Amino acid sequence: MDRRNSRRDAEGTSVITANRLLDGRIVWLAADGQWATLIQDAKLFPNSAVEEALKACNARAQEEALVGIYGVQVTETDSGPLPVTSRERIRAGGPSVHPDFTPDWHAPHPAPYA
Amino acid sequence: MPLLENGQIIQDTWQIAVEGESLPTGDVLVPLARLSEGLGRNSDARLGVVLSSADDVETLRDALPRLDVVALTFPVFRDGRPFTQARALREHLHFKGEIRAGGHVLPDQYEFLLRCGVTAIDLPEGADPAVWQRAHEAFTVAYQPSILNEQAEGFAFRRRLA
Amino acid sequence: MSHSPSAALPVGHYAYDDVDRTFLKQRVAQFKDQVERRLSGALTEEEFKPLRLMNGLYLQLHAYMLRVAIPYGVLDAKQMRTLAHIARTYDRDYGHFTTRQNIQFNWIRLEDTPEILNVLADTDMHAIQTSGNCIRNVTADQFAGAAADEVLDPRVYAEILRQWSTLHPEFTFLPRKFKIAISGSQQDRVAARFHDIGLIAREGENGRPVFEVFVGGGLGRTPIIGVRLRDDLPEEDLIAYLEAILRVYNAHGRRDNIYKARIKILVQALGTEEFLNQVNAEFAAMDRARYRLPEATVEAIRARFGAPDFAPAGNAAEKLAAQRKADRAFDAWVHTNTHPHKQPGYCSITVSCKPAGGIPGDVTSAQMDLLADLAERYSFGELRITHLQNVVLGHVRQDALYDVWQSLEKNGLGEANIGFITDIVACPGLDYCALANARSIPIAQKLSSRFANADLQREIGPLRLNISGCINACGHHHAGHIGILGVDKRGEEAFQITLGGSAGDGDASIGQILGSAMSEDETVDAIARIIDTYLSRRTAGERFIETCRRLGTAPFKDAAYATA
């Protein structure tokens, strides 16, 4: 795993993220234990509790078809958790060069498999 | 450990030398460091050597005529040195005995190993031989010559796989 | 009827037969099986990752990315339409041409991938070995088979190497990726000295080709210019010699540190002489008959390539001259975007995928379809992707240029900027790439807008501007006259400028870092000041790179870091 993914301050707040194995899309661990596509739905963990939460998530990764589970440090804002690094802000919001490709983007014409 | 040879699972009758213990009687695989001890054994039993992926097969040149098995080891499947070791044993040293591959090997590497001169696989316990057989039959053509000297398939370097 | 037997073959690339097609379908079936084993848990993610990478499938920031191989950068109109279809059906209606002459799709789903590979296979395409620690897509001169200065067509040899390296039993789990480039022109347009192996072919004394062999070049974390191992490797030894190089590398390349695992580090560690000794020892010991490349084999492959059936030049040149005189914008485009052809009455066109303010190398599915149409109508159905992320129509009649240009203009592909400062090379950067430290595209867009004025670009003249979002250097920043490298400053993006790099033409050099990293906007301003310095200090007719070499970096550094 990318070493940048485990950079966290001792203090602070984080959310937990992963990619879905089947389609690769980014998901965030929500309070109800489900994996949400919007960071606004992510559950906040104090940094001191992240390692343990990650351990539990990793144990279920195969069963829940997830890969690359790690914690992302955030600041809390009015519009929800905001990652502290630009990398994670781009992951949470979509590529900056395609403002239309937000995490809840849908194809205008559904693909045949949909 | 089960041994996959010519598509069959056979029981491995070879013993592996245990560190700090004297060599057992019977067919034995020794690490490279204990090769001379193995060669000096007063026994009719067969001898093989286990190489790590970092060992140079050239060091076996003199001993090879007295060896029945060379066992290659993948510390992790991504370490591709055993492919070159196997091919060098066949092509440079003209070794005619059994070449085994063990350690962390994937079925997806099986055909490559065979084409480099490996003849048997130390399967991990519980491995499904059907998956390995499927991997062996996945392709009917290869795009380069190998030490197996397969028949040409049309033009260029294409080879027909059995 | 004087129909040549090659009339039905695709122009510019190898024609598959049933054996090749069966192989591709078997490869798809194998991947489908691997995906199923991954989903069942039989393969761990660690085990599956290299297997999917060897089918071009990466897990990037937002989704899977599929890199489709375009061998030696050549594809036909039908294949381009397949790529358009994939963009529309399985992605978000666009694709990205890469610096390795391939195409990437950014929004792929793993569960669709076997089907996508199947669709690709239907038009003889695949994603084999576009990633992973194996021999990658072999790149070649984008003007192969067309350029007036070409000695021989490298594509036949690129195809031989493609086939030989496909699922190579010994070299599929190398210490690290392995890139080969080949050129058939003394004008090195493939950056041969920046590849793991670079080959430059020329005619030998017996009428058969010989190859100059460079090894151990590369960009990335440790940029190194490759060393010459052989000056005149005979054709029949080509495969044997590459086997020997790869064997030494596979046995002795470092596997303990991913950053020191490329062949260039091994060559440096052993020294050129010792490395050469080991290769020669292997070459001498191997069964040479087995790996010999006979003339008949080369000709068998050559016979699978279609050749363009050129028409007489007629008055094409006169007609073009008149059209250029009548339309200044067209004249400017012909000046920058065409390349001399060996056939009288023809030329090669480079279609710019770098519109002002646009994303370098991105094309929509509609643009792909248009390019396919134009190739069919005007260039024998053949297209090429360049390592500078543009598209080439190889063989266009001079009297058809005006029509082609008008179509391109209407569809956002008419930019007259090839070789200029806005013909920017950029990797996908942090907008997409899991490895990136900084975004490459937004800074490319700002620079491209900043210098969009056509007269200004002409005034500045030839200038290669390359941008990488991290030290892996997919944007070849070290090889740019001006390079930009994205770095991570405690979680924020920043950019370093390099100066004086060059990829080819016998004067390969590595760009020097000017100084500490700056923000995106500071970097754009700094580059504008570097350009001003060049314009004020150049001598008559002196190109940017020449001024850099004459003056050194100091005046440019002063300009870059000058604060108002």
From TrEMBL, chain A:
<protein>
    <recommendedName>
        <fullName>DUF2849 domain-containing protein</fullName>
    </recommendedName>
</protein>
<feature type="region of interest" description="Disordered">
    <location>
        <begin position="77"/>
        <end position="114"/>
    </location>
</feature>
<dbReference type="Pfam" id="PF11011">
    <property type="entry name" value="DUF2849"/>
</dbReference>
<dbReference type="InterPro" id="IPR021270">
    <property type="entry name" value="DUF2849"/>
</dbReference>
Automatic annotation (TrEMBL), chain B:
<protein>
    <recommendedName>
        <fullName>Oxidoreductase</fullName>
    </recommendedName>
</protein>
<dbReference type="Pfam" id="PF06073">
    <property type="entry name" value="DUF934"/>
</dbReference>
<dbReference type="InterPro" id="IPR008318">
    <property type="entry name" value="UCP030820"/>
</dbReference>
From TrEMBL, chain C:
<dbReference type="InterPro" id="IPR005117">
    <property type="entry name" value="NiRdtase/SiRdtase_haem-b_fer"/>
</dbReference>
<keyword id="KW-0479">Metal-binding</keyword>
<feature type="domain" description="Nitrite/sulphite reductase 4Fe-4S">
    <location>
        <begin position="131"/>
        <end position="283"/>
    </location>
</feature>
<feature type="domain" description="Nitrite/Sulfite reductase ferredoxin-like">
    <location>
        <begin position="339"/>
        <end position="410"/>
    </location>
</feature>
<keyword id="KW-0411">Iron-sulfur</keyword>
<dbReference type="GO" id="GO:0020037">
    <property type="term" value="F:heme binding"/>
</dbReference>
<protein>
    <submittedName>
        <fullName>Sulfite reductase</fullName>
    </submittedName>
</protein>
<dbReference type="InterPro" id="IPR045854">
    <property type="entry name" value="NO2/SO3_Rdtase_4Fe4S_sf"/>
</dbReference>
<dbReference type="GO" id="GO:0051539">
    <property type="term" value="F:4 iron, 4 sulfur cluster binding"/>
</dbReference>
<dbReference type="GO" id="GO:0016491">
    <property type="term" value="F:oxidoreductase activity"/>
</dbReference>
<keyword id="KW-0349">Heme</keyword>
<feature type="domain" description="Nitrite/Sulfite reductase ferredoxin-like">
    <location>
        <begin position="64"/>
        <end position="121"/>
    </location>
</feature>
<keyword id="KW-0004">4Fe-4S</keyword>
<dbReference type="GO" id="GO:0046872">
    <property type="term" value="F:metal ion binding"/>
</dbReference>
<dbReference type="InterPro" id="IPR051329">
    <property type="entry name" value="NIR_SIR_4Fe-4S"/>
</dbReference>
